[in-house]
Amino acid sequence: MTHFKNNIKTLIIAFDGAQLLDITGPYQVLASANEEVGRTVYDLCFASLDGEHTKTSSGLTLLSTPLHDCDPTGFDMVLVVGGDAPDITRAAGSRELQQWLKASYPHVDRMCSVCSGTFALAAAGLLGGARVTTHWRSSRILARKYPDIEVDDDAIYLKSGKVWTSAGVTTGIDMCLAMVAEDVGTQAAMSIARRLVLYAHRPGHQAQFSALLEGQSQTTGPLSETLQWMADNRHKAIAVRDCAKHAVMSERTFHRRFVSEAGMTPAKYLESLRVEAARGLLEQTRSPLKQVAALAGFSNDQHLILVFEKRLGMSPTDYRKLHGRLQGAA
After folding, report:
1. What's the rounded Cα separation, in Å, for the pair 256 and 250?
2. CB of 110 closer than 8 Å to CB of 78
3. pLDDT tier, 327 (very low <50, low <70, confident <90, very high otherwise)
4. For residues 288 and 317, is the Cβ–Cβ distance under 8 A?
5. Strand, helix or coil at 65?
6. Are 133 and 157 in contact (CB under 8 A)?
7. Is a pLDDT exceeding 80 seen at residue 204?
8. Residue 86 and which of 147, 237, 289, 317 are 20 to 30 A apart at CA?
9. Rounded alpha-carbon distances, angstroms, from residue 21 to 105, 157, 196, 269
């Protein structure tokens, strides 16, 4: 566990048009940590780029401290929340916010964002070489605009050095629970999750949503039908050429159109479907790895292990230990 001093001075920064839950979710988790341990772990402050009143996207207005009244060298942790365009575009482009974040960065232990707040950190030049995430609707825009940043469009939150980023809305809660686990222990984090009636504290590598839903939300016509066919047949030894045949296209045309509409190669999408299937089997069954690999569509258990290490940063066995719902699952 990382040992922080008590009274971790924490600033949550918002702006007019910010998402309400991006603000209140993290704030409540950190405030609950203080209640849980009976002391001030997080000394919380709420500031706004736009003055003393922050009008959120839901229409609710919150009292806030003007950002220009906050000393950028006086905080241990800074968290920038997100919002939809054009509000986040305006905030991220603010010279005042960019300069404040740059001045604060050398002094903080954590520089964080929720949802599209990642754009503000990127605009301030704080994410070069970092591996980050943001809301799935904005991940390609972020990657295109800042090619020096590694954007993971699957994770719900990520830690890269002192930078923490989350995918959006409720994932800010998961990210802050992970911080609480670092600062005061896993038991405290789990107790807070129970108090807030959360299903569980989700780890950062949890997918934002299913691969099938992601693909189908971005494709139309015959290609959408082929995505469903790929999902239905992912346990078989199908390859990209088989998918192209189903879509009644040449392999080259199929690949080009797939990338254009789905935003990834057919091979990566097929692998995503198989990873998703393997995760479900690891969570819900005691089946040995060889059987899991076969049922999910991997060529063998070694292939399954390699893909899990690459995609999730852990072995299938470790994933099952963390997520297995059956007592004694091995």
Report:
1. 10
2. yes
3. very low
4. no
5. strand
6. yes
7. no
8. 147
9. 25, 16, 14, 31
Residue 148: phi and psi, rounded to 5, are -85, 0
Residue 172 to residue 23: CA distance in whole angstroms: 9
Strands 65-66 and 42-48: parallel
For residue range 21-49, list pLDDT tens digits in order: 999 999 999 999 999 999 999 999 999 99
Please report the sign of the dihedral spanned by the C-alpha atoms of residue 294, residue 299, residue 301, residue 307: negative
Q: Where are the beta strands (DSSP E) in the chain?
A: 8-14, 42-48, 53-55, 61-63, 65-66, 77-80, 110-114, 131-132, 150-151, 157-160, 163-166
The domains found in the chain, sorted by start residue, are 8-195 (3.40.50.880), 211-323 (1.10.10.60)
Is residue 326 left, alpha or beta, with left meaning phi > 0 and alpha meaning psi from -120 to 50?
beta
161 or 2, which is more confident: 161
291: tokens are: 């059987």
CB 190 within 8 A of CB 142: no
Q: Which contiguous run of DSSP H or E holds residue 215?
A: helix 211-216
| DSSP annotation of 207 | B
Look up residue 325 and give its amino acid: R
46-83 pLDDT tens trace: 999 998 999 999 999 999 999 999 999 999 999 999 99
- Assess contact for 17 and 56: CB atoms under 8 A: yes
Residue 206 contacts by C-beta under 8 Å, 6 or more apart in sequence?
155, 156, 174
Sign of the alpha-carbon dihedral angle for 226, 228, 231, 232: negative
Helix (H) or strand (E) holding 75: none
CA angle 324/329/330 to nearest 5° reads: 110
Helices (H), 41-157: 87-92, 95-104, 118-123, 139-145
Distance CA 246, CA 255 (A): 13
Please report where in the chains the tokens 């500031």 appear, as a residue.
47
Report the alpha-carbon distance of residue 282 to residue 319 in Å, rounded. 7
Query: What sign does the dihedral 189-192-194-196 (CA atoms) show?
Result: negative
For 268-297, write each residue's pLDDT tens digit.
889 988 988 898 899 889 999 999 999 999
